[in-house]
Write a structure and sequence with these properties.
By secondary structure, the protein is mainly α. Helix content is 38%, strand content 6%. The chain binds FE2/S2 (inorganic) cluster (FES). The site of FE2/S2 (inorganic) cluster has 12 residues, from α6.
C-alpha cells in the first residue's frame, strides 16, 4: 500500500526525513496526486538521456512541480520508473537543497546570508522577514503563500544583498525593499525580477527545471529569457581597471603534451576491425607495431587485451632479459651495437 503523501508513515518509508512533514490545512490537504500524465512526462524526461537514471534530477523537479515538494509518492514514482530503490532516490533528493522535504508555499523566498550579502545586510533582511511572516528557515506561512529560507551564496555577489523568489533575482535589497517585495507576493502580485525571466511560482519554476517550458511558443520563451539585464555592478571592476590602465598578468602558455609525454605511441593508427579482431586488439597491435624500442614494444604489449609473449610481454616469473630496460634503439647502426655503458667499455 502506498503511504499517504507527507504522512509520518510515508516519510519513514522513504527515509527522507526523520520528522513528520507539515500537515497544516492548506498544504497537504490540497496536494494534487501524481497522475498518469506525471508518469508519462517522467518517461519523456528519461528518453532524453542515454542512461535513464541520468534523468533523476529533472524527474525530482517534475514531482515537485506537481506537489510542491519531493513527496514519498514522488520518490516512489521515480524509483519505479528508473528501477532504483527508494533509498537511492531519497539519497539524491536529500543531498540537494533545491529538493524540498516539506510542501513549499506558492513562492519560495531565499535570502542570501553568505559572506558578502551578510556584510551588506543579508541577515538583517532575513530576520526582518522572519519576524513579519512569523516563520523561520524552511518554514511556510499559515496561508501557504510563502516559504522562507536562508540561502548560501546565490552566485550574485556583485548585486549583494540578494533575495531570490522562485530562483529569480531581486538584487541589492535592503530591509524595506524586501518587506515590500514580500507584501506584494502575499497580495498575489508578481513583481518583476531585477533581471532575467519573469516571476512564476515555485511549482512553475520546478516545471521549467524539469525541462518543460511554460511559454506557448519559442518567441514567448525567448522574450522571457531575454528580459532586461542589469550589468553595471558586474562590469564595474572591469571599467575601473580600464580607467586605471590595469590588466591581469598574462597566463603562462600551456605546452601541449607530446604523445611520448602521455605514454602514447608516436603514430596513431586507427583500428579498422577488418582483421577479425576487436577494435581494441587492432589498436593494441598498432601500438606495438609503432613502438621503436623493445621496451616500448613491451610496454605497448602490456595493454593488449589478450596477446602476450609474442609482443615481448614477459611471463610472470620469468627473470629479467639481457639488456632489458636500457632503452637501446632497435634501429642502431652496426657500429653502435653492443657498445654497452661507458663503465663496461673501460673494463
Ligand atoms: S554572498 Fe550572496 S550572492 Fe554571493
Amino acid at each position: 500500500m502506498t503511504a499517504l503523501p507527507g504522512s509520518p508513515e510515508g516519510t519513514a518509508t522513504t527515509g527522507l526525513d526523520s520528522t513528520p512533514v507539515d500537515s497544516r490545512p492548506g498544504t497537504l490537504a490540497e496536494l494534487p496526486p501524481l497522475t498518469e500524465t506525471t508518469r508519462e512526462e517522467a518517461r519523456q524526461i528519461m528518453a532524453r538521456y542515454p542512461e535513464p537514471r541520468s534523468a533523476l534530477l529533472p524527474m525530482l523537479h517534475l514531482v515537485q512541480s506537481v506537489q510542491g515538494y519531493v513527496s514519498p509518492e514522488g520518490v516512489a514514482l521515480c524509483a519505479e520508473e528508473l528501477g532504483l530503490t527508494k533509498a537511492e532516490v531519497g539519497a539524491v533528493a536529500t543531498f540537494y537543497t533545491m529538493y524540498k522535504r516539506r510542501p513549499t508555499g506558492r513562492h519560495l523566498v531565499s535570502v542570501c546570508t553568505n559572506t558578502l550579502c551578510n556584510v551588506l545586510g543579508g541577515q538583517r533582511i532575513f530576520d526582518a522577514l522572519a519576524a513579519d511572516l512569523g516563520v523561520g528557515h524552511d518554514e511556510t506561512t499559515d496561508d501557504g503563500s510563502l516559504t522562507l529560507e536562508h540561502a548560501e551564496c546565490l552566485a550574485a555577489c556583485d548585486y549583494a544583498p540578494v533575495v531570490t523568489v522562485d530562483y529569480e533575482f531581486y538584487d541589492q535589497q535592503d530591509v524595506d525593499s524586501a518587506r515590500e517585495l514580500v507584501a506584494a507576493l502575499r497580495r498575489g502580485e508578481k513583481p518583476d525580477p531585477t533581471r532575467g525571466a519573469p516571476l512564476t511560482d515555485f511549482r512553475g519554476i520546478s516545471r521549467q527545471l524539469a525541462g518543460f517550458t511554460q511559454h506557448p511558443d519559442r518567441a514567448a520563451a525567448r522574450a522571457a529569457v531575454d528580459a532586461p539585464m542589469q550589468d553595471e555592478p558586474t562590469l564595474r571592476g572591469v571599467r575601473l581597471a580600464a580607467e586605471r590602465g590595469e590588466a591581469a598578468p598574462p597566463l603562462p602558455r600551456r605546452r601541449e603534451p607530446e604523445p611520448a609525454d602521455r605514454g602514447e605511441p608516436r603514430e596513431t593508427v586507427r583500428p579498422t576491425g577488418r582483421t577479425g579482431q576487436t577494435p581494441e586488439e587492432e589498436a593494441a597491435d598498432a601500438r606495438v607495431a609503432a613502438a621503436d624500442t623493445p621496451a616500448e614494444k613491451a610496454g605497448a604489449a602490456e595493454a593488449h587485451p589478450d596477446r602476450g609473449t609474442e609482443y615481448g610481454r614477459r611471463d610472470p616469473g620469468e627473470g629479467p632479459r639481457r639488456g632489458e630496460g636500457t632503452e637501446t634503439p632497435a634501429t642502431k647502426t652496426p657500429g653502435q651495437a653492443g657498445q654497452g655503458t661507458s663503465i663496461e667499455r673501460e673494463r
